[in-house]
Amino acid sequence: MTSVKANAGALTNFEVLDLLNSRGASKDTTRVIASETVSRSEYKVYDYLMETAASTQTRDSVTKFSDKCKGFKLAKAEILNIINLRPSSDVELTPILEKPDEREIDIEGILALVQELLPPLPTVEAHKENEQEETEDGEQPNMETSV
Amino acid sequence: MFCLSELEDTVRVPPSDLNLPLEVAIKKALQKLFLDKVLSIGLCVSIYGIKSIEGGFVLPGDGAATYKVVFRIVVFRPFVGEVIAAKFKESDSNGLRLTLGFFEDVYVPAPLIPTPNRCEPDPYNRNQMRWVWKYGDDEFIIDDSCQQIKFRVENISYPPVPTERAEDAKPFAPMVVTGTIDDDGLGPVSWWEACAPISDAED
């Protein structure tokens, strides 16, 4: 076995989830029908990804986001991290960036872009909505319908 | 976390699969060979697609057909500096062990847990130790109740297969990811939930 290209391209969590979805993976507990095309170990990956931000993302939102990120002087690895984690606050974004102060990164701008383009996280979303009903200006409910 | 890798390999399709369409048979053989196995490039998660198939010769003395296949696979290979959300699995005096469901060998050694901390025997589980982080006057426990723990990848290592092992040693881990939770925003997600998201912050 030889590797022609060890790294033929990085994939976001969303793209892997999309691949498994197109093979027939789904959330139902029977999973008998799809077991021809999706093996048990692939299902473990699917289960993990469904709990991350990738489960609510769409191809459109991810492409738009990475296009707009070009204006922020971010490394490709950092854009990948942001798409995978969907940070919603300053403290979530800082461990992803390397030396943000020296590079003069616009943290507020990035967070605003995340809020605007990437759909909110899955299970946390229900919990957050109850907490932030009074303060949030209805942005999150709008995000749901667009997906 | 994941990336595509292009590989070329000689694949042997057993005679029992020769009635299947060629692509299906080769994919089946590839899955058996690569799925859920750790290669030098990482943990193989899924076959992405086949690029080319050549050959199909039957070697003397063998009933199977041998093909030379170029294909792409999805590999789990986190890069150093990547932040990943995982779940708590167990902890002992050396540090924490986290799991991703499909990958369970993520270790956070004691020096990479935020200081000051202390390790105490877990009152609920006699065999385990519990790590507690002391920040100011508050103490934060790291244990099963943490929903998600974010860590940053420090290092990935592929220990060589051991030739001899003690009877009660842990199952051999061909790929070990070392992570740190000693930074802003890392560690259990509940530690940082108190920090309001950007839209709520006052200007």
UniProtKB/TrEMBL annotation, chain A:
<comment type="similarity">
    <text>Belongs to the eukaryotic RPC9 RNA polymerase subunit family.</text>
</comment>
<keyword id="KW-0539">Nucleus</keyword>
<dbReference type="Pfam" id="PF03874">
    <property type="entry name" value="RNA_pol_Rpb4"/>
</dbReference>
<dbReference type="InterPro" id="IPR038324">
    <property type="entry name" value="Rpb4/RPC9_sf"/>
</dbReference>
<dbReference type="InterPro" id="IPR038846">
    <property type="entry name" value="RPC9"/>
</dbReference>
<feature type="region of interest" description="Disordered">
    <location>
        <begin position="123"/>
        <end position="147"/>
    </location>
</feature>
<keyword id="KW-0804">Transcription</keyword>
<feature type="domain" description="RNA polymerase Rpb4/RPC9 core">
    <location>
        <begin position="3"/>
        <end position="124"/>
    </location>
</feature>
<dbReference type="InterPro" id="IPR006590">
    <property type="entry name" value="RNA_pol_Rpb4/RPC9_core"/>
</dbReference>
<dbReference type="InterPro" id="IPR010997">
    <property type="entry name" value="HRDC-like_sf"/>
</dbReference>
<protein>
    <recommendedName>
        <fullName>DNA-directed RNA polymerase III subunit RPC9</fullName>
    </recommendedName>
</protein>
<keyword id="KW-0240">DNA-directed RNA polymerase</keyword>
<dbReference type="InterPro" id="IPR005574">
    <property type="entry name" value="Rpb4/RPC9"/>
</dbReference>
TrEMBL record, chain B:
<dbReference type="GO" id="GO:0005634">
    <property type="term" value="C:nucleus"/>
</dbReference>
<protein>
    <recommendedName>
        <fullName>DNA-directed RNA polymerase subunit</fullName>
    </recommendedName>
</protein>
<keyword id="KW-0804">Transcription</keyword>
<feature type="domain" description="RNA polymerase III subunit Rpc25">
    <location>
        <begin position="82"/>
        <end position="192"/>
    </location>
</feature>
<dbReference type="InterPro" id="IPR005576">
    <property type="entry name" value="Rpb7-like_N"/>
</dbReference>
<comment type="function">
    <text>DNA-dependent RNA polymerase which catalyzes the transcription of DNA into RNA using the four ribonucleoside triphosphates as substrates.</text>
</comment>
<dbReference type="InterPro" id="IPR012340">
    <property type="entry name" value="NA-bd_OB-fold"/>
</dbReference>
<keyword id="KW-0240">DNA-directed RNA polymerase</keyword>
<feature type="domain" description="RNA polymerase Rpb7-like N-terminal">
    <location>
        <begin position="8"/>
        <end position="63"/>
    </location>
</feature>
<dbReference type="GO" id="GO:0000428">
    <property type="term" value="C:DNA-directed RNA polymerase complex"/>
</dbReference>
<dbReference type="Pfam" id="PF08292">
    <property type="entry name" value="RNA_pol_Rbc25"/>
</dbReference>
<dbReference type="InterPro" id="IPR045113">
    <property type="entry name" value="Rpb7-like"/>
</dbReference>
<dbReference type="InterPro" id="IPR036898">
    <property type="entry name" value="RNA_pol_Rpb7-like_N_sf"/>
</dbReference>
<dbReference type="GO" id="GO:0006352">
    <property type="term" value="P:DNA-templated transcription initiation"/>
</dbReference>
<dbReference type="Pfam" id="PF03876">
    <property type="entry name" value="SHS2_Rpb7-N"/>
</dbReference>
<dbReference type="InterPro" id="IPR013238">
    <property type="entry name" value="RNA_pol_III_Rbc25"/>
</dbReference>
<keyword id="KW-0539">Nucleus</keyword>
